[in-house]
Amino acid sequence: MKLSPLGDKVVLKQLEAEETTKSGLILTSQSKEKPQEAIVVAVGPGGMVGDTKVEMVLKEGDRVIFSRYGAMEIKFDGEEYLVMRQNDILAVVKD
Amino acid sequence: MKLSPLGDKVVLKQLEAEETTKSGLILTSQSKEKPQEAIVVAVGPGGMVGDTKVEMVLKEGDRVIFSRYGAMEIKFDGEEYLVMRQNDILAVVKD
Amino acid sequence: MKLSPLGDKVVLKQLEAEETTKSGLILTSQSKEKPQEAIVVAVGPGGMVGDTKVEMVLKEGDRVIFSRYGAMEIKFDGEEYLVMRQNDILAVVKD
Amino acid sequence: MKLSPLGDKVVLKQLEAEETTKSGLILTSQSKEKPQEAIVVAVGPGGMVGDTKVEMVLKEGDRVIFSRYGAMEIKFDGEEYLVMRQNDILAVVKD
Amino acid sequence: MKLSPLGDKVVLKQLEAEETTKSGLILTSQSKEKPQEAIVVAVGPGGMVGDTKVEMVLKEGDRVIFSRYGAMEIKFDGEEYLVMRQNDILAVVKD
Amino acid sequence: MKLSPLGDKVVLKQLEAEETTKSGLILTSQSKEKPQEAIVVAVGPGGMVGDTKVEMVLKEGDRVIFSRYGAMEIKFDGEEYLVMRQNDILAVVKD
Amino acid sequence: MKLSPLGDKVVLKQLEAEETTKSGLILTSQSKEKPQEAIVVAVGPGGMVGDTKVEMVLKEGDRVIFSRYGAMEIKFDGEEYLVMRQNDILAVVKD
């Protein structure tokens, strides 16, 4: 069972912050601010969206920086994901 | 008697959360948050919507994740439905 | 004397809820929530509306589900009507 | 001295409600809600308005139902008028 | 020294209300509501404004009724003027 | 070191009010309301801005009346400037 | 590891104000207002953005004045950056 986004939408899995403070204390998810990085897990087909032809440049597995503005949270199969339009992705992280 | 949506609109029947808590207690609909999953029950013909030609990609029976933003609740023949534009459907759930 | 709507507008006559409670009590219009169903009583000619060519698909006598958003209430010849653009009609009820 | 509206604008003279209550009492203008009916007194030439070509379908003397939304009140030569775009006219009253 | 408006803008000089009350008292500018009439004192060249070709139909000396919405007040050479787009002029007063 | 604006933007240097009150007192900049006049100090190249081709009609040294709406204040090289789109310039002052 | 912006977006590294007060006191970053100057560190490919073809005129290393409006703050690899559309860059600083 998997998600197939419509149009120019992409599904992201947000990365958890894995930080250790200087004193060695592991921060709980409550006290950490989630970073704006995520992994692309599904990409829509693009094509005509409104009156604009959108070509998808993202692909599954891309590590991206996204804008919280426009991100919609969904829960699917017990997991949390973000769905947004490709245009709300700010940048791809390249090695 | 059935609903025939106009333009790029679709009619959805929202799925009820069927969860059992660890203690075996069945949650009533009052205490459960409705999931954003629904079954498509009717699909508009698409075509020109405003100044955009919309091709419908959804079909009856599709299981979809939708955005609450843009969903309009209606009551028809004693049942509750959601009506929204195809563009407010985030993703189709594929097996 | 009748109403001839402009452009892509339609005139609707809202259906009154005719419900009887289980105890047989007839609900007064005060205590009933008006359903979102209406009968189309007049249809505009369509054509160019803004920069979009609109083809009217509704016709007099159609039973429709409408969105309260965008509905304008008018009083004409002692009767209450709703005027809205065809695009604010969600679906036609088919037998 | 008369008003010549620009573009797709029309000038309306609102109809006063002339009602007599059942007891024969003439309602003063203070206690009556003005109806949304008006007589068209001047019609703009239409043509390009923004990037849209507007064809005027209203003519002087037409009795119309208008939307309060978009209506601008002006006072000219001691009389009150309404100016609005043709698109804010909901319907023409036909005999 | 004079003002040369850009694009589809026009410069107006608002007419002062010259009223005498029934008792013969001249109203001061404080107590009078300024009418929405003005004289056109400068007209922009029109042409492409955004993605629309605007043809100027107003000319210097035209007496117009304007919408307060969109009117910008400026002070130039000790005098107060209004600047607005031609589209915010409601009507020209013809003799 | 100078500023080179992008697209249809222009850089303005606002004129200081140089007024003497009737009693001969020079007003400090605190108590004076800055006039909406400025000198154009840099002009962008124009060209495609969004989906519109913009031709720049302003040039360095032009004295202009501008709309506060849309004006962005910047500090550069110790001096304050305003940056705005050409369309937010209301008029050029001609001798 | 580096950032590759999408569409017409650019990544900026904001310049820190390096000021010494007259008394010789070095201002801490808390008490200083950050200037609106930044260095471009990454530039998107441009191309079709919405229904507009955007040509990128900025390049890495450009020193720019930007509008806070539209700037999105991100943290990447322990450093703070700003991401915005090329259109939110006001001007390039030329030597």
UniProtKB/TrEMBL annotation, chains A, B, C, D, E, F, G:
NCBIfam families: PRK00364.2-2. InterPro entries: Chaperonin_GroES (IPR020818), Chaperonin_GroES_sf (IPR037124), Chaprnonin_Cpn10_CS (IPR018369), GroES-like_sf (IPR011032). It comes from the Bacteria. Together with the chaperonin GroEL, plays an essential role in assisting protein folding. The GroEL-GroES system forms a nano-cage that allows encapsulation of the non-native substrate proteins and provides a physical environment optimized to promote and accelerate protein folding. GroES binds to the apical surface of the GroEL ring, thereby capping the opening of the GroEL channel. GO terms for molecular function: ATP binding; metal ion binding; protein folding chaperone; protein-folding chaperone binding; unfolded protein binding. It is found in: Cytoplasm. It holds the Pfam family Cpn10. Belongs to the GroES chaperonin family. Keywords: Chaperone, Cytoplasm. This is Co-chaperonin GroES.
